[in-house]
Amino acid sequence: MSRFQIRISPSFHLSTDNGRTIKSEMADSKVDTISRLAQWRIENFGSFSYKKSDPFKVGIWNWHLSIEKNRYLYIRLFPEPSRASKEQPPIARFVLRVSNAGANNRRPYISPVHERSLRTSEDFVWPVDSSFHGRLIIDVEFLDLKICPLNGGEASSIWPGDGMMPSVSTQGTLRCLSRMLDEAIHADVTIHTADGTLSAHKAILSASSPVFESMFDHGLKEKESSTIDIEDMTLESCMTLLSYLYGTIKQEDFWKHRVSLLGAANKYDIAALKDACEESLLEDINTMNVLERMQEAWLYQLNKLKKGCLAYLFDFGKIYDVRDEIGKFFRHADKELMVEMFEEVLTVWKPV
């Protein structure tokens, strides 16, 4: 009986026995990502093995994970070789977790928080003194990604400062609008907030929000008194809202007040701001905020954010990390939301 084996790539091999050719299962190299979390599920990892993931994108770089077993389990994280990773290597702040899949209690092995410049596969190696084998799950959660300017200088985070630069003509218009707001030039409406007052312009508010437009068009008290009560916002958060409406908002102010802005966008029917808040809240889901985000998604009917939170908790298995907070969450959560989460549990936790 003749038997031989032909290896044709790291991804799969062909084995021939008595003239029959059998294609083996493709290697499990795909990495799933959501927000700033990447998860690599490995179906079969032996005692002496090496595996490298397919590239996955987080931030502006493509990344790889690799795992090697000798005396220890060695896990590497590194950017895919490219001009960007060579000229502007990422400075990553991240945490890794490895666990056996399929068990009810996965008992993850968690790394310290690392922060370092990553250029090649030799820049970061995490040795795990453990006997993990078989079906594995490896998580890497990026807490921050920084980049240095090409001409030198201090590294800065790619989150949240990745907005588009306005054109020269737009910059001039925005400077005028900024003066109108900051100096209250011909302002014709006063806004009362929870801790102070602001001046604004009916035309700008009306053009930005159908709710404001209705206030000034239909003889309501806002039209007669030229005042608006927004007492569910602080002076600072309301000023950030106005900065958005006038086109002069700073990224760091948006990031700081986005939850409050979401409530205002929903209340005053400012669709573009509501979408921007949802996208932003979806970008940095983590174990500290995922339940709060879930509640906000339900309250403001944000389907993308809700699906992202559900995927983070159940598809990516982070429900294990919030077990202490989940009881309090369920005591205050809407019943329909609880039912939806329970249905998600039944979908994900199928018998193996």
Report on this structure.
This protein has 3 domains: 31-157, Sandwich (Apoptosis, Tumor Necrosis Factor Receptor Associated Protein 2, Chain A), CATH 2.60.210; 168-271, 2-Layer Sandwich (Potassium Channel Kv1.1, Chain A), CATH 3.30.710; 285-348, Alpha Horseshoe (Serine Threonine Protein Phosphatase 5, Tetratricopeptide repeat). Strand 10 (91-100) and strand 11 form a beta hairpin. The chain is built from 12 helices and 18 strands. The protein is globular, with a radius of gyration of 26 Å. 36% of the residues lie in helices and 28% in strands. The relative contact order is 0.09. Helix 3 (202-208) crosses helix 4, helix 6 (235-245) crosses helix 7 and helix 8 runs parallel beside helix 10. The protein has helices at residues 83-87, 168-182, 202-208, 210-217, 221-225, 235-245, 251-267, 271-283, 290-299, 303-315, 323-332, 335-348; strands spanning 3-7, 13-17, 20-23, 31-34, 37-45, 50-52, 56-58, 61-69, 73-79, 91-100, 109-110, 114-117, 125-128, 134-147, 156-157, 189-193, 196-200, 227-230. The model is unreliable at 1-26 and 161-166 (pLDDT under 50). With 352 residues, it is α+β, with helices and mostly antiparallel strands.
